[in-house]
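Subject: two folds for Thursday's group meeting

Dear M.,

Sorry for the delay on this. The cluster queue was jammed most of the week, so I only got both jobs back this morning. I'm pasting them in the order they finished. Each block is the input sequence followed by the predicted C-alpha cells. Could you check whether the formatting survives your parser before we put anything on slides? The first protein is the one we discussed after the seminar.
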Amino acid sequence: MLGILICGHGRFGEGLIEASEMLCGPQPYLQALNIDLSDDLELCGQRLGTQIEAWQPDTDEILCLCDMQGGFPMEVCLVQLPDQKVKIITEATLTLLTYLLVHRNGSQSVQQLVNNALLEAKEAIHVIDPQILFADQRGEES
C-alpha cells in the first residue's frame, strides 16, 4: 500500500484531506502533518518519523505532499527522510491528491502513478474569464 502524508503550513493538510475524503471517502494511510512557524525542525521530524514507523510494514512507499517548494514542511521531509522509501511532491493540490487516492491501488508503479498525477494536476489548471464564458448568452461576440 502507498502511504500519503500531507505536510504543510498551518492546517493545510487537514483541509486537503477533508476535501479529498468528501470526494473519495475515508482513506487508509492518509495523514496530515500540520506545521506552524514556531515549530522546531527536529520535533516536526520526529512526528513525521513516528507516523512513517506506525505505517510499517503495511506501506511499501510513502509520498509526502508538501504545500510549497522550499518551505519549512519540505525541509522537514528532506531532513527526516533521506533513507526512507519516500518521494516528496511540492505544490500539492486537491486534483493531485484525489488522483493519487483513486489510482494508488492500481497496477501502475509508484513512479507511473506520480507522473500521471502530476500531468493530471497540471492539466486541471485553467483561467476562466466569466465575461468571455457568458458573452454568447448576452448576445455578444467572443
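Second protein, same layout:
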Amino acid sequence: MIMIEILGHVLMPVAGGIGSILILKGTAKVGRGSVALSAFCLILASFHFSFGFVDVLFYSLFLVNAVTDAYTGEVYNVPLFLLAPVSLLMFYGKGSYIAALFLILLPIYRKSKKLQYYFGEGDLWMLLFISMAYGRSVFYALVYASLLGLCYSLLHRKKEVYFVPFLYLGLLMANLSELNKLFAFN
C-alpha cells in the first residue's frame, strides 16, 4: 500500500510534466529541463508536505496549466476541465465557501472589457479551483504569487507576466506555515 502511494507521488507529477510537453508540442519551444525541474520540485513538495492522493493529483494538473501558461500565455481546456472535478471533490471534503466569491467574479469578468484586458480568464478559473480545494489558502497563494510576479517583472523589466506559474508557486508557498507566520497570516 505504501509503495502504491509513493508511486502516485512520483508518477502523477511526471505525468503532469509530460502532459504539458505533449500539449505544447508544435505550439511552443518547451524547455524540458525546466519542466522536469518543476515536476521534481512537486515530487519533493508532495513528500515534504505529506500531500494525499487528491492533493498530488490537483497539483499535477495545476502543473500542466502553469507550464502551458508560462510558455504560451494560455491555459488549455483539457487540463482545466480535468481540474474541475478534482476541485469539486476537495470542496465537498472541506466545505470551503470562499469559492462563492470567485463564482461571483466570473460574470463580472465577462462583462468588463477592462478586467479582461488586465486579467486572463484562465487565472480566474485557477483561483476558483484553488478556493474550492484549499479555502482561504487562496488568499495566501494570491499574496505570494503577486509578490513573486512583481519581483520577476522588476528583475526582467517586463510590464506583463503570465500569472498562473506564479499562482502555482504561491500555492506551494502557502503550505509553509513558517512563512505564513512571518507575514502574520496564521
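Two things I noticed about the second structure. The CA atoms of residues 28 and 71 lie 7 Å apart. The chain has ten helices and no strands.

Cheers,
T.
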